[in-house]
Amino acid sequence: MQMTLDPKHLQGVEPELAQVLSCVASVVGEISGILRSAGSGYCGSMNAFGDQQLEVDVQVDCLIFERLASCSAVQGAGSEEQPEIRTLPGSGYTVVFDPLDGSSIMGANFPVGTIFGIWPGGSPVGRAGRQQVAAAYAVYGPQTILVWAKPRAGKSAVHTAANGDNPNHEDSAGLDAKSAAAAPEAALSNSICSSGSNIHNTHEVHEFLLHPDGSWHLKRVNVAIGPVSRTFAPANLRAAGSNAEYAALVRRWTEAAFTLRQQGAAARRDSVLYWMC
């Protein structure tokens, strides 16, 4: 099935970057089809980070590399499964990705995701996340969605990446765990979005929904982290058993009657706002 994205959604984007984003949208559609019938068996190997690889991890990883290699605007790529940046035939951008975030719980039929970071030029090693020119993630659940942050019309890739070096840029966490645990509720609710909002000065964050015919339809525009949230999604709760500051932070959320929105794996919604910061 041919995956289609209306070119109007890439108006004002530099042609080479538009090629990369189109490639991302296309391969996400392919992955969605693969996952409908994929198994959850292990292939007997581990990646560079010591994680056991599922057969579908390897399959999706190889597929993304193949599609990026066919894009004339991609000169390099690396992944969680193959972290060393691989030189590709194109020129312009380097893409790094996690092929299947949360694949270890595919057997429970929970949502999983794919994460992409796009840097101008060569290797991103030693460069800050805010120097990405674009970023995207997909979630494969009851629906397949794709969320990306792309430069606003008139903002070139080079200009956007250079502005990412702003020395006044705040840390994306806003508050450290100890400070957040002691903060009043209003500050706690606002802390996670104190820097995420900066992205909207240079980028548009849009969400697309994949339809059964393979077409992407715009679902939400100008996606943003709200000024106040009553939900939380803590990662690695086991760490609370040995990290008193993290335990205090989680306890603060629960005592404030925040709603848990986490399944322990898949890319969380609006995460692209963090990766760009």
Summarize the structure.
This protein has about 280 residues and is of the alpha+beta class. It has helices at about 15-35, 55-70, 155-165, 175-180, 185-190, 245-255, 270-275, and strands at about 40-45, 50-55, 75-80, 85, 95-100, 110-120, 135-140, 145-150, 205-210, 215-220, 230, 260. Helix 1 packs antiparallel against helix 2 (about 55-70).
Helix count equals 7
Q: Which fold name is given in CATH as the topology?
A: Fructose-1,6-Bisphosphatase, Chain A, domain 1
Number of E strands: 12
Low-confidence stretches: 162-195
Characterize the structure shown.
This protein has 277 residues and is of the alpha+beta class. It has a single domain (7-169, 195-225, 268-275), classed as 2-Layer Sandwich (Fructose-1,6-Bisphosphatase, Chain A, domain 1), CATH 3.30.540. Helices cover 26% and strands 24% of the residues. It has seven helices and twelve strands. The chain has helices at 15-35, 55-69, 157-163, 177-182, 185-191, 244-255, 272-275, and strands at residues 42-46, 52-54, 74-79, 86-87, 93-101, 112-120, 134-140, 144-151, 203-210, 216-220, 231-232, 259-260. The protein has an eight-stranded mixed beta sheet with strand order 4-3-5-6-7-8-9-10. A two-stranded antiparallel sheet has the order 1-2. α1 (15-35) runs antiparallel to α2 (55-69). It is globular. Residues 162-195 have low confidence and may be disordered.
